[in-house]
Protein backbone atom coordinates (compact mmCIF):
# COMPACT_ATOMS: atom_id res chain seq x y z
CA UNK A 1 0.00 0.00 0.00
CA UNK A 2 1.22 3.51 -0.74
CA UNK A 3 2.28 5.83 2.05
CA UNK A 4 0.43 9.18 2.04
CA UNK A 5 2.06 12.57 2.55
CA UNK A 6 0.24 12.84 5.91
CA UNK A 7 1.78 9.55 7.05
CA UNK A 8 5.25 10.80 6.22
CA UNK A 9 4.64 14.06 8.10
CA UNK A 10 3.27 12.06 11.05
CA UNK A 11 6.35 9.83 11.14
CA UNK A 12 8.65 12.86 10.94
CA UNK A 13 6.83 14.57 13.82
CA UNK A 14 7.04 11.39 15.90
CA UNK A 15 10.76 11.24 15.21
CA UNK A 16 11.15 14.86 16.27
CA UNK A 17 9.16 14.31 19.45
CA UNK A 18 11.28 11.31 20.32
CA UNK A 19 14.43 13.38 19.69
CA UNK A 20 13.08 15.98 22.12
CA UNK A 21 12.08 13.32 24.64
CA UNK A 22 15.64 12.03 24.65
CA UNK A 23 17.02 14.93 26.69
CA UNK A 24 19.31 13.20 29.12
CA UNK A 25 21.10 14.46 32.20
CA UNK A 26 24.50 15.45 30.85
CA UNK A 27 26.28 18.61 29.75
CA UNK A 28 25.23 19.80 26.31
CA UNK A 29 27.91 21.62 24.36
CA UNK A 30 27.13 24.27 21.74
CA UNK A 31 26.16 21.97 18.86
CA UNK A 32 24.01 19.68 21.02
CA UNK A 33 22.36 22.65 22.71
CA UNK A 34 21.45 24.17 19.33
CA UNK A 35 20.26 20.83 18.02
CA UNK A 36 18.04 20.32 21.05
CA UNK A 37 16.48 23.81 20.85
CA UNK A 38 15.85 23.44 17.10
CA UNK A 39 14.27 20.03 17.73
CA UNK A 40 11.87 21.51 20.31
CA UNK A 41 11.00 24.32 17.92
CA UNK A 42 10.23 21.83 15.13
CA UNK A 43 8.22 19.50 17.37
CA UNK A 44 6.14 22.27 19.00
CA UNK A 45 5.81 24.97 16.32
CA UNK A 46 2.64 26.58 17.72
CA UNK A 47 3.99 26.76 21.29
CA UNK A 48 7.61 27.84 20.75
CA UNK A 49 9.70 30.39 18.89
CA UNK A 50 13.49 30.13 18.64
CA UNK A 51 15.70 33.11 17.86
CA UNK A 52 19.21 34.36 18.48
CA UNK A 53 19.47 37.76 20.18
CA UNK A 54 23.09 38.21 19.10
CA UNK A 55 26.47 36.54 19.01
CA UNK A 56 29.28 35.97 21.46
CA UNK A 57 32.80 37.30 20.89
CA UNK A 58 33.69 34.02 19.13
CA UNK A 59 30.52 34.19 17.01
CA UNK A 60 28.33 31.67 18.84
CA UNK A 61 24.59 32.38 18.77
CA UNK A 62 22.90 33.57 21.97
CA UNK A 63 19.78 31.44 21.64
CA UNK A 64 16.47 32.26 23.28
CA UNK A 65 13.54 29.86 23.18
CA UNK A 66 10.19 31.60 23.73
CA UNK A 67 7.24 29.55 24.99
CA UNK A 68 3.58 30.48 25.19
CA UNK A 69 0.29 30.51 23.35
CA UNK A 70 1.59 33.45 21.27
CA UNK A 71 5.31 32.72 21.15
CA UNK A 72 6.30 34.98 18.26
CA UNK A 73 5.06 38.33 19.54
CA UNK A 74 3.85 40.29 22.55
CA UNK A 75 0.09 40.16 23.18
CA UNK A 76 -1.64 42.93 25.13
CA UNK A 77 -2.21 41.86 28.74
CA UNK A 78 0.19 38.90 28.64
CA UNK A 79 3.32 39.60 30.71
CA UNK A 80 6.83 38.72 29.53
CA UNK A 81 9.09 36.59 31.75
CA UNK A 82 12.70 35.48 31.30
CA UNK A 83 15.31 33.09 32.69
CA UNK A 84 19.00 33.58 31.80
CA UNK A 85 21.69 31.06 32.75
CA UNK A 86 25.42 30.42 32.33
CA UNK A 87 26.35 34.13 32.38
CA UNK A 88 29.52 32.94 34.07
CA UNK A 89 30.67 30.21 31.68
CA UNK A 90 31.96 27.90 34.42
CA UNK A 91 28.67 28.04 36.41
CA UNK A 92 26.86 25.31 34.57
CA UNK A 93 23.91 23.93 36.54
CA UNK A 94 21.48 26.63 35.36
CA UNK A 95 22.31 25.93 31.72
CA UNK A 96 21.20 22.31 32.01
CA UNK A 97 18.17 22.78 34.26
CA UNK A 98 16.78 25.36 31.84
CA UNK A 99 16.90 22.73 29.09
CA UNK A 100 14.97 20.38 31.38
CA UNK A 101 12.53 23.19 32.21
CA UNK A 102 11.86 23.63 28.47
CA UNK A 103 11.34 19.89 28.15
CA UNK A 104 8.95 19.86 31.11
CA UNK A 105 6.90 22.83 29.83
CA UNK A 106 6.41 21.57 26.27
CA UNK A 107 5.59 18.00 27.31
CA UNK A 108 3.17 19.14 30.07
CA UNK A 109 1.24 21.61 27.91
CA UNK A 110 -2.28 20.32 27.24
CA UNK A 111 -1.85 17.58 29.86
CA UNK A 112 -1.15 19.46 33.08
CA UNK A 113 -3.84 22.14 33.71
CA UNK A 114 -1.49 24.41 35.68
CA UNK A 115 1.26 24.41 33.06
CA UNK A 116 -1.34 24.83 30.32
CA UNK A 117 -2.79 27.93 32.00
CA UNK A 118 0.68 29.26 32.75
CA UNK A 119 1.69 29.05 29.09
CA UNK A 120 -1.65 30.41 27.88
CA UNK A 121 -1.25 33.51 30.05
CA UNK A 122 2.50 34.13 30.11
CA UNK A 123 5.19 34.54 27.47
CA UNK A 124 8.30 32.80 28.81
CA UNK A 125 11.77 33.50 27.37
CA UNK A 126 14.56 31.03 28.19
CA UNK A 127 18.24 31.70 27.46
CA UNK A 128 20.22 28.62 28.52
CA UNK A 129 23.59 30.32 28.01
CA UNK A 130 24.63 33.97 27.93
CA UNK A 131 28.32 33.04 27.82
CA UNK A 132 28.77 30.08 25.44
CA UNK A 133 32.44 30.94 24.86
CA UNK A 134 33.21 30.74 28.58
CA UNK A 135 31.43 27.40 28.84
CA UNK A 136 33.41 25.93 25.92
CA UNK A 137 36.66 27.35 27.35
CA UNK A 138 36.16 25.49 30.64
CA UNK A 139 38.13 22.37 29.78
CA UNK A 140 38.56 21.05 33.31
CA UNK A 141 35.38 21.41 35.40
CA UNK A 142 36.06 22.82 38.85
CA UNK A 143 33.87 23.47 41.88
CA UNK A 144 35.45 26.80 42.66
CA UNK A 145 36.72 28.84 39.76
CA UNK A 146 38.09 28.67 36.22
CA UNK A 147 38.94 31.24 33.55
CA UNK A 148 35.74 30.16 31.81
CA UNK A 149 33.86 32.46 34.19
CA UNK A 150 34.72 35.33 31.82
CA UNK A 151 33.82 35.88 28.19
CA UNK A 152 36.40 35.51 25.40
CA UNK A 153 37.69 39.04 26.06
CA UNK A 154 38.32 38.21 29.72
CA UNK A 155 35.39 40.34 30.92
CA UNK A 156 33.02 39.36 33.73
CA UNK A 157 29.58 39.83 32.15
CA UNK A 158 27.98 40.37 35.56
CA UNK A 159 30.18 43.46 36.10
CA UNK A 160 29.60 44.76 32.58
CA UNK A 161 26.26 46.60 32.67
CA UNK A 162 25.70 50.32 33.25
CA UNK A 163 25.52 50.90 37.01
CA UNK A 164 23.01 53.08 38.83
CA UNK A 165 25.47 54.19 41.50
CA UNK A 166 28.82 54.81 39.81
CA UNK A 167 30.23 55.13 36.32
CA UNK A 168 31.09 51.64 35.13
CA UNK A 169 34.26 51.95 33.08
CA UNK A 170 34.13 48.40 31.67
CA UNK A 171 33.71 48.35 27.89
CA UNK A 172 30.36 46.81 27.02
CA UNK A 173 30.76 43.31 25.56
CA UNK A 174 28.77 41.86 22.62
CA UNK A 175 26.93 39.47 24.97
CA UNK A 176 25.99 42.33 27.32
CA UNK A 177 24.93 44.58 24.44
CA UNK A 178 22.70 41.81 23.06
CA UNK A 179 20.95 41.41 26.43
CA UNK A 180 20.55 45.19 26.84
CA UNK A 181 18.91 45.42 23.40
CA UNK A 182 16.72 42.43 24.19
CA UNK A 183 15.53 44.07 27.43
CA UNK A 184 14.78 47.28 25.50
CA UNK A 185 12.77 45.45 22.82
CA UNK A 186 10.53 43.39 25.11
CA UNK A 187 8.26 44.40 27.99
CA UNK A 188 9.89 42.13 30.57
CA UNK A 189 8.17 42.20 33.95
CA UNK A 190 10.02 39.52 35.92
CA UNK A 191 13.28 37.66 35.47
CA UNK A 192 15.94 35.58 37.20
CA UNK A 193 19.54 34.88 36.32
CA UNK A 194 20.96 31.52 37.32
CA UNK A 195 24.44 31.23 38.82
CA UNK A 196 26.45 28.75 40.88
CA UNK A 197 28.95 28.73 43.74
CA UNK A 198 26.46 29.27 46.57
CA UNK A 199 22.90 28.33 47.50
CA UNK A 200 20.81 31.47 47.92
CA UNK A 201 18.32 33.81 46.22
CA UNK A 202 19.87 37.28 46.07
CA UNK A 203 17.94 40.47 45.27
CA UNK A 204 18.44 44.13 44.32
CA UNK A 205 20.34 46.33 44.98
CA UNK A 206 23.80 44.86 44.42
CA UNK A 207 25.39 48.28 44.68
CA UNK A 208 24.39 51.23 46.84
CA UNK A 209 25.12 54.49 48.61
CA UNK A 210 23.80 56.31 51.70
CA UNK A 211 20.53 57.10 49.92
CA UNK A 212 19.70 53.37 49.65
CA UNK A 213 21.05 52.48 53.10
CA UNK A 214 24.58 51.34 52.32
CA UNK A 215 25.83 52.79 55.62
CA UNK A 216 23.78 50.09 57.34
CA UNK A 217 25.10 47.36 55.03
CA UNK A 218 21.82 46.88 53.12
CA UNK A 219 20.90 48.56 49.84
CA UNK A 220 17.13 48.95 49.75
CA UNK A 221 15.13 49.47 46.56
CA UNK A 222 11.69 51.15 46.57
CA UNK A 223 10.20 47.67 46.02
CA UNK A 224 12.17 45.90 48.73
CA UNK A 225 9.07 44.07 50.06
CA UNK A 226 8.32 42.64 46.59
CA UNK A 227 11.94 41.52 46.13
CA UNK A 228 11.96 39.76 49.51
CA UNK A 229 8.74 37.98 48.50
CA UNK A 230 10.21 36.95 45.12
CA UNK A 231 13.41 35.61 46.69
CA UNK A 232 11.43 33.71 49.34
CA UNK A 233 9.11 32.28 46.68
CA UNK A 234 12.11 30.62 45.08
CA UNK A 235 13.93 29.56 48.24
CA UNK A 236 10.83 28.20 49.99
CA UNK A 237 9.91 26.05 46.98
CA UNK A 238 13.45 24.75 46.54
CA UNK A 239 14.36 21.39 48.10
CA UNK A 240 16.87 22.89 50.55
CA UNK A 241 17.66 26.56 49.82
CA UNK A 242 15.08 27.74 52.41
CA UNK A 243 17.15 26.10 55.20
CA UNK A 244 19.70 28.87 54.71
CA UNK A 245 22.70 26.76 55.63
CA UNK A 246 24.70 28.01 52.67
CA UNK A 247 27.70 26.04 51.46
CA UNK A 248 30.02 26.13 54.44
CA UNK A 249 29.88 26.99 58.11
CA UNK A 250 31.07 30.54 57.56
CA UNK A 251 28.06 31.67 55.57
CA UNK A 252 24.42 31.36 56.50
CA UNK A 253 21.49 33.01 54.75
CA UNK A 254 18.31 33.18 56.89
CA UNK A 255 15.46 31.62 54.85
CA UNK A 256 17.85 31.17 51.94
CA UNK A 257 17.71 34.79 50.75
CA UNK A 258 19.97 37.85 50.86
CA UNK A 259 20.07 41.46 49.76
CA UNK A 260 22.81 41.59 47.13
CA UNK A 261 24.69 44.45 48.76
CA UNK A 262 24.53 42.80 52.19
CA UNK A 263 26.27 39.76 50.75
CA UNK A 264 28.92 41.64 48.79
CA UNK A 265 28.96 44.89 46.85
CA UNK A 266 28.98 44.53 43.10
CA UNK A 267 29.18 47.13 40.34
CA UNK A 268 27.69 46.69 36.85
CA UNK A 269 25.44 43.74 37.73
CA UNK A 270 22.62 42.53 35.51
CA UNK A 271 19.85 42.45 38.15
CA UNK A 272 20.19 46.14 39.07
CA UNK A 273 20.28 47.05 35.36
CA UNK A 274 17.03 45.14 34.75
CA UNK A 275 15.30 46.90 37.62
CA UNK A 276 16.50 50.45 36.99
CA UNK A 277 16.56 50.61 33.19
CA UNK A 278 14.51 47.62 32.08
CA UNK A 279 11.47 48.04 34.38
CA UNK A 280 11.97 44.34 35.10
CA UNK A 281 12.32 42.81 38.57
CA UNK A 282 15.21 40.35 38.49
CA UNK A 283 16.78 38.22 41.20
CA UNK A 284 20.01 36.20 41.11
CA UNK A 285 19.70 32.50 41.90
CA UNK A 286 22.78 30.71 43.18
CA UNK A 287 21.88 27.07 42.65
CA UNK A 288 24.88 24.92 43.55
CA UNK A 289 27.78 25.04 45.97
CA UNK A 290 29.92 23.52 43.26
CA UNK A 291 30.12 25.72 40.15
CA UNK A 292 30.61 22.88 37.65
CA UNK A 293 29.47 19.65 39.36
CA UNK A 294 29.77 16.17 37.84
CA UNK A 295 27.06 15.37 35.28
CA UNK A 296 25.67 12.55 37.43
CA UNK A 297 24.38 15.19 39.89
CA UNK A 298 22.32 17.08 37.29
CA UNK A 299 19.18 15.01 37.75
CA UNK A 300 19.11 15.85 41.45
CA UNK A 301 19.62 19.55 40.71
CA UNK A 302 16.65 19.44 38.34
CA UNK A 303 14.46 17.73 40.96
CA UNK A 304 15.56 20.22 43.65
CA UNK A 305 14.68 23.27 41.49
CA UNK A 306 11.72 22.13 39.40
CA UNK A 307 8.88 23.36 41.65
CA UNK A 308 10.69 26.61 42.50
CA UNK A 309 11.29 27.42 38.83
CA UNK A 310 7.55 27.11 38.08
CA UNK A 311 6.33 28.91 41.22
CA UNK A 312 8.68 31.79 40.50
CA UNK A 313 7.33 32.25 36.95
CA UNK A 314 3.80 32.54 38.39
CA UNK A 315 4.87 35.67 40.30
CA UNK A 316 4.86 37.62 37.02
CA UNK A 317 1.08 37.82 37.64
CA UNK A 318 1.41 39.69 40.95
CA UNK A 319 0.08 43.21 41.27
CA UNK A 320 -1.64 45.37 38.68
CA UNK A 321 -1.54 45.85 34.94
CA UNK A 322 -3.46 47.87 32.38
CA UNK A 323 -3.47 50.21 29.43
CA UNK A 324 -3.29 53.97 29.17
CA UNK A 325 -5.33 55.37 26.27
CA UNK A 326 -6.33 58.74 24.82
CA UNK A 327 -9.86 60.05 24.19
CA UNK A 328 -10.13 57.95 20.99
CA UNK A 329 -9.05 54.75 22.75
CA UNK A 330 -5.58 54.81 21.18
CA UNK A 331 -2.69 53.65 23.37
CA UNK A 332 -0.40 56.26 24.92
CA UNK A 333 3.21 55.09 25.02
CA UNK A 334 5.67 56.63 27.53
CA UNK A 335 2.99 57.57 30.07
CA UNK A 336 4.44 57.26 33.59
CA UNK A 337 2.55 54.77 35.77
CA UNK A 338 3.75 54.09 39.31
CA UNK A 339 2.34 53.22 42.72
CA UNK A 340 2.37 56.19 45.07
CA UNK A 341 5.24 56.08 47.54
CA UNK A 342 7.32 53.84 45.21
CA UNK A 343 9.11 56.21 42.88
CA UNK A 344 11.62 54.63 40.54
CA UNK A 345 14.56 56.86 39.77
CA UNK A 346 13.91 56.02 36.13
CA UNK A 347 10.10 56.40 36.14
CA UNK A 348 8.29 53.28 34.89
CA UNK A 349 6.60 54.02 31.57
CA UNK A 350 4.04 52.41 29.29
CA UNK A 351 5.19 50.47 26.23
CA UNK A 352 4.21 51.07 22.59
CA UNK A 353 0.78 49.55 23.26
CA UNK A 354 0.25 51.91 26.21
CA UNK A 355 0.62 49.01 28.67
CA UNK A 356 2.06 48.99 32.16
CA UNK A 357 2.78 46.12 34.58
CA UNK A 358 3.55 46.80 38.27
CA UNK A 359 4.53 43.98 40.61
CA UNK A 360 2.94 44.68 44.00
CA UNK A 361 2.09 42.51 47.00
CA UNK A 362 -1.57 42.22 48.12
CA UNK A 363 -2.81 45.46 49.69
CA UNK A 364 -4.31 48.87 48.89
CA UNK A 365 -2.37 51.18 46.60
CA UNK A 366 -2.86 54.47 44.80
CA UNK A 367 -1.75 54.15 41.19
CA UNK A 368 -0.62 57.40 39.58
CA UNK A 369 -0.75 57.68 35.78
CA UNK A 370 0.88 60.75 34.25
CA UNK A 371 0.98 61.88 30.64
CA UNK A 372 3.62 64.65 30.73
CA UNK A 373 1.91 68.02 30.28
CA UNK A 374 -1.47 66.85 31.59
CA UNK A 375 -3.17 66.44 34.96
CA UNK A 376 -2.17 63.15 36.67
CA UNK A 377 -4.83 60.53 37.17
CA UNK A 378 -5.02 58.67 40.51
CA UNK A 379 -6.85 55.41 41.09
CA UNK A 380 -7.04 53.44 44.33
CA UNK A 381 -6.80 49.69 43.82
CA UNK A 382 -7.22 46.75 46.16
CA UNK A 383 -4.75 44.07 45.08
CA UNK A 384 -5.22 40.40 45.94
CA UNK A 385 -2.85 37.52 45.24
CA UNK A 386 -3.85 36.66 41.69
CA UNK A 387 -0.90 34.45 40.84
CA UNK A 388 -3.16 31.39 41.00
CA UNK A 389 -5.51 32.98 38.45
CA UNK A 390 -2.59 33.81 36.12
CA UNK A 391 -3.63 37.44 35.76
CA UNK A 392 -2.73 40.57 37.70
CA UNK A 393 -5.52 42.98 38.60
CA UNK A 394 -6.57 45.00 35.54
CA UNK A 395 -6.78 48.79 35.87
CA UNK A 396 -6.93 50.96 32.74
CA UNK A 397 -6.55 54.74 32.48
CA UNK A 398 -8.22 56.89 29.82
CA UNK A 399 -7.10 60.49 29.32
CA UNK A 400 -10.06 62.34 27.73
CA UNK A 401 -8.08 65.52 27.01
CA UNK A 402 -5.19 63.76 25.26
CA UNK A 403 -5.46 63.18 21.54
CA UNK A 404 -3.12 61.74 18.91
CA UNK A 405 -1.89 65.16 17.90
CA UNK A 406 -0.47 66.07 21.29
CA UNK A 407 1.53 62.99 22.12
CA UNK A 408 4.49 63.69 24.31
CA UNK A 409 7.88 62.49 23.15
CA UNK A 410 9.70 61.42 26.26
CA UNK A 411 13.46 61.18 26.37
CA UNK A 412 14.70 57.79 27.49
CA UNK A 413 16.28 57.43 30.89
CA UNK A 414 19.78 58.86 31.28
CA UNK A 415 22.61 56.34 31.25
CA UNK A 416 24.61 58.21 33.89
CA UNK A 417 24.58 56.87 37.44
CA UNK A 418 21.27 58.17 38.71
CA UNK A 419 21.61 57.67 42.42
CA UNK A 420 24.88 59.56 42.38
CA UNK A 421 23.04 62.58 40.96
CA UNK A 422 20.45 62.32 43.70
CA UNK A 423 23.05 62.48 46.44
CA UNK A 424 24.18 65.80 44.97
CA UNK A 425 20.60 67.00 44.49
CA UNK A 426 19.74 70.59 45.29
CA UNK A 427 16.45 72.42 45.73
CA UNK A 428 16.33 72.85 41.97
CA UNK A 429 15.52 69.17 41.51
CA UNK A 430 12.09 68.54 40.01
CA UNK A 431 9.49 66.92 42.29
CA UNK A 432 9.63 63.65 40.33
CA UNK A 433 12.66 62.52 42.29
CA UNK A 434 10.58 62.85 45.49
CA UNK A 435 11.46 60.54 48.35
CA UNK A 436 15.12 59.81 47.57
CA UNK A 437 15.99 63.52 47.50
CA UNK A 438 14.17 63.97 50.79
CA UNK A 439 16.17 61.12 52.31
CA UNK A 440 19.41 62.66 51.04
CA UNK A 441 18.55 66.04 52.55
CA UNK A 442 17.70 64.36 55.88
CA UNK A 443 21.03 62.52 55.83
CA UNK A 444 22.93 65.74 55.16
CA UNK A 445 21.06 67.57 57.98
CA UNK A 446 21.58 64.82 60.54
CA UNK A 447 25.24 64.31 59.77
TrEMBL record:
GO MF term (any one): zinc ion binding
Provide a GO CC annotation, any one: extracellular space
Q: Which Gene3D superfamilies match?
A: Carboxypeptidase-like, regulatory domain (2.60.40.1120), Zn peptidases (3.40.630.10)
Asked if Nucleotidyltransferase is a keyword of the record, the answer is no
Task: Write down the Pfam families for this protein, in alphabetical order.
Answer: CarboxypepD_reg (PF13620), Peptidase_M14 (PF00246)
Using the record's annotation, list all stretches that form the Peptidase M14 domain.
26-316
Query: Per its UniProt record, what PANTHER family does this chain match?
Result: CARBOXYPEPTIDASE M (PTHR11532:SF84), PROTEASE M14 CARBOXYPEPTIDASE (PTHR11532)
Identification of the protein by name:
CBPM Carboxypeptidase
Q: Which organism is it from?
A: Mohoua ochrocephala
State which gene encodes it. Answer: Cpm
